[in-house]
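Handoff note, outgoing to incoming analyst
You'll be picking up this chain. Sequence as last confirmed:
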Amino acid sequence: MLLDTDPKIKNISAAQIVKVMYPLVIAKTEAGEYVKVQLSDEQMQDPLFWDTLKNINKSKLWVPLGKHFHQLLSNDWLMPTTN
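Most recent structure output, in case you need it:
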């Protein structure tokens, strides 16, 4: 299920990663605002995370970004399914 129908969508913005240069990640929101992505200590130390960000940047994919803290969302655009 997509988050479109969930009220929490108000706290999520779509962004494109435009700059990846350790330890800095810059994203451009749909509104055209450039923001510094806040990374966790784990993300800072994870080489696979940095390779993935470089691939996302190269592919020009849109990623979900928290509007208030400018953090990447680990659950992407999907909500957990309920049974």
